[in-house]
């Protein structure tokens, strides 16, 4: 029991020590530095108290919504070990199966003769593109499919945004993302193994994909924050923190926009891209329109999606039975 608890606590601590995690200490530090620059451009920099209040506003960091984020982060780490971890070890064997399938299907007798540097860059880029698109696609589906939306709604129920809001998610959503990551990594490995052989290396910085590292260090943690940082014309290529904040907006004109993580091209293809301006929209608020009883209650956050989906399923069955009964009655009368 103590070993299990220690393992989970170490896993929790890895959030700030692992460059593959969004709240890696380097990413947090860079986001903080950018937030200070944003403040300096828009406020009187001599007011040190004002800067502190801007960065660490108690009404945000101690809001009931934020407090729920912190609790979900802690509890979900324990759930991850039981529910999600098994999927994370499946990428390698699945990649071998994909590799064998491609070889047998296309009868590859030899691989292209390419340099190791080419393999390094191609594998790193393929992995990044597949990962980013699969994140976009799953995110899009969770908004479009009512059953999935009720789980994803846990994340969108946040009324204030902090970097830890990324952990405000339902375990079922976390499971779907774990399966997505396994399939994506396996597909990238399988394809590139066919091209370059089994000895693949990813171009990384501190263990993270170089493209992911660069994107995260340029203020990725400001996506979930009150700091409005627009990227202008670059938003047609990359998703800025301001664009993701629009994605969380309660106002109807921003519904179902900016699903992307890093690249904006997927949103362009799906006609869901909205670019921002330097000025934050007036009265921009976060959360969901539908009124919920105790929206930040932990038990409600975990159980409400199941209960709602069960109620919908039961109602559908009841309506189907009534329709069948009515149809049978009509046939008997004729």
Automatic annotation (TrEMBL):
Span of domain Fatty acid hydroxylase: 125-271
Positions of transmembrane segments: 24-41, 81-102, 177-199
Bilayer disposition of the protein: Multi-pass membrane protein
Molecular function per GO: glyceryl-ether monooxygenase activity; iron ion binding
Cell compartment(s), UniProt: Endomembrane system
Native source organism of the sequence: Catenovulum agarivorans DS-2
Residues in coiled coil: none
Keywords annotated in UniProt: Membrane, Oxidoreductase, Transmembrane, Transmembrane helix
Protein name per its UniProtKB record: Fatty acid hydroxylase
Gene Ontology cellular-component annotations: endomembrane system; membrane
């Amino acid at each position: 029991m103590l070993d299990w608890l220690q393992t989970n606590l170490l896993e929790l601590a890895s959030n700030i020590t692992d460059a593959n995690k969004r709240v890696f200490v380097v990413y947090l530090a860079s986001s903080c530095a950018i937030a200070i620059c944003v403040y300096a451009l828009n406020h009187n920099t001599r007011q040190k108290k004002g800067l502190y209040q801007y960065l660490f506003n108690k009404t945000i960091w101690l809001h009931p919504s934020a407090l729920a984020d912190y609790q979900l982060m802690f509890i979900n780490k324990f759930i991850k070990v039981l529910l999600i971890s098994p999927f994370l070890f499946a990428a390698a064997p699945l990649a071998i199966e994909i590799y064998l399938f491609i070889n047998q299907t296309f009868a590859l007798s030899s691989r292209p003769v390419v340099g190791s540097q080419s393999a390094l860059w191609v594998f790193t880029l393929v992995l990044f593109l597949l990962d980013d698109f699969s994140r976009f696609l799953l995110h899009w589906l969770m908004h479009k499919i009512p059953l999935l939306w009720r789980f994803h709604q846990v994340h969108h129920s946040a009324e204030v945004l902090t970097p830890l809001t990324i952990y405000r998610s339902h375990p079922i959503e976390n499971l779907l993302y774990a399966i997505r990551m396994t399939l994506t990594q396996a597909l990238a490995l399988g394809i590139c193994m066919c091209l370059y052989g089994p000895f693949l290396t990813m171009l990384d910085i501190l263990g993270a994909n170089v493209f992911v590292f660069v994107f995260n260090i340029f203020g990725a943690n400001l996506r979930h924050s009150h700091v409005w940082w627009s990227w202008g014309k670059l938003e047609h290529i990359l998703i800025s923190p301001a664009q993701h904040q629009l994605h969380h907006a309660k106002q109807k004109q921003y519904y179902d926009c900016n699903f992307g993580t890093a690249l904006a091209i997927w949103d362009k293809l799906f006609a869901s891209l909205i670019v921002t301006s330097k000025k934050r929209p007036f009265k921009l608020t976060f959360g969901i329109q539908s009124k919920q009883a105790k929206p930040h209650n932990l038990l409600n956050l975990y159980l409400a999606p199941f209960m709602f989906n069960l109620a919908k399923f039961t109602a559908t069955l009841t309506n189907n039975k009534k329709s069948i009964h009515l149809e049978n009655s009509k046939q008997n009368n004729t």
